[in-house]
Write a structure and sequence with these properties.
30% of the residues lie in helices and 30% in strands. By secondary structure, the protein is an alpha+beta fold.
Length: 84
């Protein structure tokens, strides 16, 4: 599972392929979560309050790139890196 972005110790990953709904994976400080892409929020797992806020804000800014990556992984293509 390639890391597509890293910022403030937060690592963002996408699996090829993965299950619906469209989402990405987050790892930070030993915690893991899955975040939905369409309306960014925690699907599974948990994050600290500050990390959750940062990830949700990042996902809203990068929604187009996240959706494009989701379409790539549906075609069994590797996701592309996304800027912090």
């Amino acid at each position: 599972m390639p890391c597509i972005c890293e910022f403030d110790g937060i690592q963002i990953y996408m699996y090829v392929p993965d299950h619906n709904p469209p989402h990405f994976h987050v790892r930070v400080h030993g915690l893991e979560a899955q975040i939905t892409i369409t309306d960014p929020d925690i699907l599974r797992g948990s994050l600290g309050r500050t990390e959750r806020r940062k990830v949700i804000e990042w996902a809203r800014k990068r929604q187009y790139e996240l959706e494009a990556n989701w379409h790539r992984i549906e075609q069994y293509l590797p996701p592309e890196e996304i800027a912090p």
